[in-house]
Amino acid sequence: MNIIVTGILLSGTYALVALGLTLQYGVARIMNLSNGETLVAACFVAFWLYTGFAINPLVGMLIIAPAAFAINWGIYAFALQPLVKRAKNRGQLEVDSILATFGLLFLMQGLMILFFGGEYRSYTFLAERFDIFGNAYGLNRVVAFVAAAIIAVGLWFFLYRTRRGTALRAVAVDPTSANLVAIDVARTAAFAFALGGALTACGGALLSTFYTFNASMGVVFTMKALIIVIMGGVGDVRGAVLAALILGVSETFVASVIDPGLTLAATYGLFILVLLFRPQGIFGRAQT
């Protein structure tokens, strides 16, 4: 039971990061390899706000999320939209976006090292005991999970109960058909990319409350987000949440029962199994 609860608590932040990439890839068609750097940047900003100005990280998200939204909109408009316009098909866009965001990864990583240094950082926030089923857990982890769950529910409500959310889902399914029903596909894609960046930043802010981080760890989280997105089915919010839950519990099990050093190996092993037996993902549809 301890392993399951710990894994579930970890899966909350994983889900937010993966939901961000789900929107960027599923709607905007951008495979953003710098997604993890957005998370790490949010960790540093939350750290800076808390240690420098005593701003609660949960309150700090009200600053971090809009800033991440605006920055990611700018990145899409100036660096990625020209690639979208020149791409003749989705395959070319994916290749071009991978190359562009791969370069952006190193740019963001270099800037973070310049401003924050390469050492590991952490801070103490709600480092108190919280009992669940008779076992003790960090209150910071519980609060981070609850906040992530609230944000995920809010995203679901937005996607399935609002006109803008319906437009996002329509573009994700078929941009050409969406354009025929008067949906501004270019603007919707930019909005999806920016919203994805904001979600990832929220995940970073929450992760910073209980995780030790440094400027070079973004690649690991990008890969985890990519694995979750593919496991759940590209563009499927439900699948991303369920895959994040599976990944969180699996990593916790391996770290607790076998060896903490094998968590990444277990993650990739699970990914390979999905590719072999259900390449379309948990909720994805097989190609015909």
How much beta, percentage-wise?
Answer: under 5%
- Classification by helices and strands: mainly alpha
String of helices and strands: HHHHEEHHHHHHH
What strand order characterises the main sheet?
1-2
Give the oligomeric state: single chain
Helix content: over 70%
Number of E-state strands:
2
Overall, the morphology is globular
Number of domains: 1
Distinct helical segment count: 11
- Biggest sheet overview: 2 strands, antiparallel
Name the poorly predicted regions: none
Average pLDDT metric = 86
Question: Rg to the nearest angstrom?
Answer: 18 Å
Termini distance? 41 Å
Description:
- The chain is mainly alpha-helical.
- It has one domain.
- It has 11 helices and 2 strands, in the order ααααββααααααα.
- The protein has helices at about 1-25, 35-55, 55-85, 90-115, 140-160, 165-175, 175-180, 185-205, 220-230, 235-260, 265-275; strands at about 130, 135-140.
- A two-stranded antiparallel sheet has the order 1-2.
- A hairpin with a 2-residue loop joins β1 (about 130) and β2.
- The longest helix is centred in the first third of the chain and has 30 residues, at about 55-85.
- The chain is globular and about 55 Å long.
Question: Any chance you could write out the topology, listing elements then pairs?
Answer:
Blueprint: H1 2-26, H2 35-53, H3 57-86, H4 90-116, E1 129-132, E2 135-138, H5 139-161, H6 163-173, H7 175-180, H8 185-207, H9 218-232, H10 237-258, H11 263-277
